[in-house]
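Researcher: Good morning. I'm working through a list of sequences from a screen, and I'd like to move beyond sequence-only analysis. For each chain I'm collecting a predicted structure so we can compare shapes side by side. This is the next one on the list. No need for commentary yet; just the structure.
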Amino acid sequence: MYSFSTRRLTLTAIAASGALTASLALAGSAFAVAPATATASYNCGSAGSGTITLNAADSGGGKTLQISSTDIRTEFPLDANTVTTTLKLKKASGGATSEVQFSGAAHGAANTGDPIAFGPLPLAAGSLAAGDTTDSVALTGEPSETNWSLKFTVNDPAGTFTSYCTATSNQSAAQTW
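Model: Good morning. Structure tokens for this chain:
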């Protein structure tokens, strides 16, 4: 009887361990970004200048950023998902610095003068590992095709054009992935 009870306990422990392993595998990896929200000042020319909020997430679906601002506004009506937004950030990893880009065409429809809100923008260039940090990099000079931190490429029936922004400050806090 003693050996039967020991076998049952062993089998129960093995089954519980297998169930835990399976549930962890199905859950995917999710890591918190700290802080999840940061702000920085940006100059977007005729669209305005001011604070942009960056909301970062790192989940089983990947690393993403959402950007929004009540200071910077749309200059004309936008249909949903017609603007490709690209954000360049400085990455620090183990003492080395490089660049990463988040880019995508995810946003709601907007009217002229509405606050901007784009994303989630997936990580599109570069890589981020646990412990890496990202930050906006303050640039001098006017935003242009060769001097930008953030760009909006509008895909409109009348044609495609791009608007540029420069970060004018680092973020309120670098975000650690």
